[in-house]
Design goal:
Blueprint: H1 2-13, H2 18-31, H3 37-41, H4 50-57, H5 63-72, H6 78-90, H7 97-103, H8 109-122, H9 125-137, H10 143-159, H11 163-172, H12 180-192, H13 195-207, H14 211-219, H15 229-234, H16 242-255, H17 261-268, H18 273-278
């Protein structure tokens, strides 16, 4: 393998055709060691070969690969730079956060948007806070990107156990100024953040008039935790339209809690046949 890697490095450094260098990059993605990284890094500013160099570097676990991509931020522009930024996000490179935060102010909206998306994927507190500021001042064309990046960051924070910080972001993303798909995603994020507030939000959503939010709440019932969750949700059954009752009954049944049975008995004696069958 070392001999083959050396041959591929020679191909990248030489006057081989673009097709040959593309092939070399593909192979180095599989067998590459730190020895090949300088040759790949040299291709990152090349508009025609940057993509394949990134293809090889992205999955490499060596710190030198991440460093090569970070260094390339200062050597690239336009679409090539956007690609490098995207690769850093793919790697969830926490060491790139400082550089990416600065790029949020770039005049090129594509670069600023790519930096926001990358920061969302990285999802550290520093990244999330930078996205808060970016979201607040984002130009109209970048608002959706900013909101989506913040939502992704919130999801990452939940995974890290930073539920309160994630919930704060999702609360803001519930505002009507953000796209509908982001608001729905943020609602799921609030439920994922857990705690008694999550249950209260689910109850409110199920009892509310927005069918989309109600459906999302019902779909996420299985993940809700806390004492008396099933009983609190079952109390909303009589207030819902039949179709929503059917969905809620199915979700509650999946939780397997005994204290929802009285609500099921009542529903089974009701006038709607679909609800009776579900109960």
């Amino acid at each position: 393998r070392r001999q083959r890697e050396a041959e591929l490095i020679k191909t990248l450094k030489g006057d081989a055709s673009r097709a040959a260098k593309d092939k070399a990059c593909r192979e180095l993605q599989v067998i590459g060691t730190p020895a090949c990284i300088p040759a790949l890094a040299a291709l990152l500013p090349d508009e025609k070969l940057s993509h394949m160099a990134r293809y090889a570097l992205e999955p490499m676990q060596y710190p030198q690969a991440a460093q090569a991509l970070r260094d390339a931020l200062g050597k690239t522009a336009g679409a090539t730079k956007v690609g490098v930024i995207t690769s850093l996000g793919f790697r969830e490179d926490t060491q790139a956060v400082g550089q990416l935060v600065k790029l949020l102010a770039d005049r090129d909206g594509h670069i600023a948007g790519a930096a926001a998306a990358a920061l969302g994927r990285i999802g550290t507190l520093e990244a999330a806070r930078a996205l808060d500021k970016f979201r607040a001042r984002a130009a109209k064309g970048l608002r959706a990107v900013a909101a989506e990046a913040s939502l992704t960051a919130a999801e990452r924070l939940v995974r890290q156990g930073l539920r309160d910080q994630a919930a704060r972001i999702c609360e803001d993303l519930q505002d009507a100024r953000w796209p509908a798909h982001v608001r729905l995603g943020a609602f799921v994020g609030l439920l994922s953040a857990g705690g008694d507030e999550a249950v209260a939000r689910a109850v409110k959503a199920i009892a509310g008039s927005d069918p989309a939010i109600r459906s999302v709440a019902i779909a996420n019932i299985a993940a809700l935790k806390g004492p008396g969750v099933g009983r609190r949700l079952a109390a909303e059954l009589p207030k819902l339209p039949p179709q929503a009752q059917v969905l809620l009954i199915g979700a509650l049944a999946g939780r397997g809690e005994a204290d929802v049975r009285p609500a099921f008995v009542t529903a089974a004696a009701g006038s709607n046949s679909e609800v009776r069958i579900a109960a």
